[in-house]
Amino acid sequence: MIPYGRQQIDQHDIEAVVEVLKSDYLTQGPVIPRFEDAVAKYCGVKSAVAVNSATSALHIACMALGVAKGDVVWTSPNTFVASSNVALLCGAEVDFIDIDPKTYNISIEALEIKLARADKIGKLPKVIIPVHFAGQSCDMKAIAALAQKYGFRVLEDASHCIGGGYAGQKIGSCIYSDACVFSFHPVKIITTAEGGMVTTNDDELFKKMTMLRTHGITRDQTLFAYDSNGAWYYEQQLLGPNYRITDMQAALGLSQMARLDNFIARRRILAKRYNELFENTDLAIPYQAPDTDSAWHLYVVGLPQNKNRKNIYNNLREDGIGVNVHYIPVHLQPYYQALGFKQGEFPNAEKYYRGALTIPLYAGLTDEEQRYVSERVIERLQS
Ligand SMILES: *Cc1c(COP(=O)(O)O)cnc(C)c1O
Q: How far is CA 329 from the centre of its chain?
């Protein structure tokens, strides 16, 4: 089966992990800060906090932003459930902003209308989590301007797009946001098996998130509330989980960072070729907005409305092609329906979902595999 996405591991990655296994520290050792520094430097951002998943990163970022009971958080319905679950885990209420039918990211127009209404009834969101779907940035300048106007904070879910760009900057630079989260799950752009990171230019957020990933504990004596009792002394100042990443994972991530630009370059070549191959078919190919430089985590084709997506999906799977669907709109999940969300509430996300099909795209996909995939997709589209 040619999967829709997969990791690329080389000898250097393996040696980097083995080196940690032979060292004194399997976790909380020296490689984690090196990995954080490498990502921060790459993104052009002040600080980065590595954790055991992007979900954990989103969670501690929400906690550090003060999201709690009584607050409202908005995100896209076209995302993985983690983007909104983290707000619920903080005790907040969640709502969604419908997507733009071209970019599949949150619609700025829908956001403006929703904000004006929320302002009138005094129920503005505390935090908005824009999701850079498939690796393409949201319109962050517009979102930052609205954040200024209405006073909400911005947490980017950039799980799809380490290595991507926006308005001449790397995603993760946090020029238009308070914090930005990456995922290192094997299907994403680089991997640590499980892992995630949050970047920020905000020292207060950085301090809190560093504590929150490890129980709310600090060993930094400049931050102590009480006098230190000795070199063993630490303080718990906040309430947090254990979301630490290991040095083995950080070593893998650090090693992968060296090839990030190569991975992105290969994804761009493949995406461009898919665009060309599908140009004269009735598939909708991914629209790219100005100012964006996608990391191409996913290649999603839009099937015409008269086609049976389920048949095409099943047929392509029979052909050995691991097609997938991203995403079932979050508000349609039973858990969210039980919270009161209704079918039809975010019609653009629902309409997009009905025709969406993710086809294989990853750095290790060969030209031959891509040719096979595109031939089968075009053929199965006719059947
Ligand atoms: C993968 C993903 C996550 C969760 O990432 P994990 O590292 O698996 O926790 C969150 N949001 C989006 C948009 C994702 O694609």
A: 16
CA dist., res. 375 & res. 364, Å (int): 19
58 CA distance to ligand 1 middle (Å): 9
* Distance in angstroms (rounded) separating the CA atoms of residues 299 and 363: 12
Give the binding-site residues of ligand 1, using a 6 Å CB cut-off.
53-55, 79-80, 82-83, 131, 157, 159-160, 183, 185, 196
How do strand 72-75 and strand 127-129 relate by DSSP bridges? parallel
CA-nearest residue for atom 6, ligand 1, is: 54
Sign of the torsion formed by the C-alpha atoms of 212, 59, 114 and 140: positive
**Using one digit for the tens of pLDDT, what is the confidence trace for 232-281?**
999 999 999 999 999 999 999 999 999 999 999 999 999 999 999 999 99
pTM for the model: 0.98
Q: Would you say the C-alpha torsion 309, 312, 315, 317 has a positive or negative sign? A: negative
Question: What letter represents residue 301's amino acid?
Answer: V
